[in-house]
Specification:
five-stranded antiparallel sheet; 2 domains; alpha+beta; 5 helices; 291 residues; four-stranded antiparallel sheet
Length: 291
């Protein structure tokens, strides 16, 4: 079921943002999927558009839901945080979801924040690394990355294979996963499903092409990076056909960029970093009528 709506909520700016307060949210679509089939349960999906001044300076945005309850008292909030979404995609609209409401529910109350990423607000939000491929399998030594306390390593093909081997599930890691799952109260059945899923993902790992740029580091570091661009000798972004990020646990993340051609010898890596100064936060409190 789809319902097109137009609800405008005027947001006041959080003290940290220090920006104009005439920013709003338009909720123009609600998709209510209240189903239960075996282990599968539905959700409540919403699509929103941001309104107001200053949005043209924002590179990306996201919706963070802190509280979500239906009128029956069901807690619908989820712990996961969505990534920042480029403002130039989907005409600037943002999509997010919460858990499915109770069958008898008719409204949902949502509280949270809209976050904008505006790198022009902080000189340290964009870091360019020259000659990044002069040395593989060693952390990049750019001053901007050190200032941001980010440790990123470009990998050679050999380094990538070694990293993949180190990430594979062995008996010790599987035992650790089972122990951690039981500690958190997860059933044995669910634990085995998670282990099986992790093994399935391992089977999808492939050796990147010769053109690929492979970066490795800790998950916490990549969580603070919005985007990485490869710049050619002319300073313009090189066309990247595909991008992927693979994470194993909290300490091992690999980002793979697949440009259409090998990066030139004088290429530059450009990092867009999610710094405190580059992010604006706008609180919202919204009541949504369910279809």
């Amino acid at each position: 079921m789809r319902l097109a709506r137009l609800l405008v909520l005027v947001l006041s700016v959080a003290p940290l943002a220090r920006a104009q307060s005439n920013v709003g949210v338009e909720i123009d679509e609600v998709v209510d999927n209240r189903v239960n089939v075996g282990d599968f349960t539905g959700n409540l999906e919403l699509r929103v558009k941001l309104t107001g001044s200053g949005l043209d300076k924002a590179t990306a945005a996201r919706i963070l839901v802190k509280e979500a309850k239906d009128d029956r008292g069901t807690d619908l909030a989820r712990s996961d945080k969505p990534d920042f979404f480029p403002r130039e995609y989907n005409q600037g609209s943002l999509a997010f979801s919460v858990a499915q409401p109770a069958r008898a529910a008719s409204t949902v109350r949502l509280k949270g924040t809209v976050e904008l990423y505006v790198p022009s607000r902080d000189p340290g939000a964009i870091v360019k690394v020259t000659k990044p491929f002069s040395k593989y399998d060693a952390p990049l030594s750019a001053a901007g990355l050190k200032a941001a306390k980010l440790t990123i390593t470009p990998l050679s093909v050999k380094g990538y294979k070694e990293a993949q081997q180190a990430r594979k599930l062995d008996d010790k890691k599987i035992a650790e996963l089972r122990a951690e799952g039981k500690k958190q109260g997860v059933s044995d059945e669910e634990i085995e499903k998670m282990i099986g899923l992790a093994k399935a993902f391992e089977g999808l790992d492939e050796t990147p092409s010769d053109n690929a740029v492979i970066l490795s580091g800790k998950k916490a570091d990549f969580d603070r990076i919005y985007r990485v661009e490869i710049l050619g000798g002319d300073g313009k972004p090189v066309n990247v056909g595909s991008r992927s990020t693979s994470t194993r646990g909290d300490d091992s993340t690999i980002m793979t960029l697949q440009p259409s051609e090998p990066p030139p010898a004088n290429a530059t890596l450009e990092f867009y970093i999610l710094t405190d100064k580059s992010r604006l936060s706008f609180p919202f409190d919204l009541k949504v009528t369910l279809p």
